[in-house]
Amino acid sequence: MPNLPEHLLAGYRNFMSGRYPAESGRYRLLAREGQAPETMIVACCDSRSAPEAIFDAGPGELFVLRNVGNLVPPYAPDGQFHSTSAALEFAVQSLKVKNIVVMGHGRCGGIRAALDTAAAPLSPGDFIGKWMSLIAPAAKTVSSSTFMERQTALERISIRYSIANLRTFPFVSILEGKGRLSLHGAWFDISTGELWVMNKDTGDFERPGMG
């Protein structure tokens, strides 16, 4: 007998009795014609900050990439395994998205790990430590009176860092230069539900109008 955690099966039953019937036509269209989202979201894999929930998105609306710390590494065509770069390549080159949004969030465990250099690795591989070392130089420059203030600052700095790294990918920078691709930054506060959007001109994070 198929075996999944019961709470997942219960959720699926709710989906099939509620949301799926309401959107079955949309699902059938997506199955027949394929996906064509206009926006890619690079988000953290933290369970508290799901982009589809935050942006109230339906099926097929967002192409979502989630990793620890919502990081985009620099362009590195070195023959190694690059899942983030592969997803980016597919979104831009195949799906031809028009927007890429790097969305960070408050109380991010990955960002906390980047700041807490004294913490012991979670395993001998230290995969998280290696991954978050991408922003180690930025972490060293953050100074503030409290750890939480430093963490919030680095959460936002890392978004600007990932956007800069996006521009190291030729297929991103070329399309952005032609006005066919726009890059955006956002930061979500889990405790309040507030969304802060990066000003493209200044790099500051501001609350958008809700009217």
Total count of strands: 6
What percent strand? 15-25%
Q: What is the first-to-last residue Cα distance?
A: 51 Å
Structural class: alpha/beta
> How many alpha or pi helices?
9
The level of helicity is 40-55%
The largest beta-sheet arranges its strands as 2-1-3-4-5-6
**Poorly predicted runs of 5 or more residues:** none
The main sheet comes to:
6 strands, mixed
User: Could you state the order of secondary-structure elements as H and E?
Assistant: HHEHEHEHHHHHEEE
Please state the CA-atom Rg, rounded to the nearest Å.
Answer: 19 Å
Mean pLDDT across residues: 95
Q: Based on CA inertia axes, which overall geometry fits? A: globular
Task: Offer a concise description of the structure.
The protein is of the alpha/beta class and 211 residues long. It contains 9 helices and 6 strands.
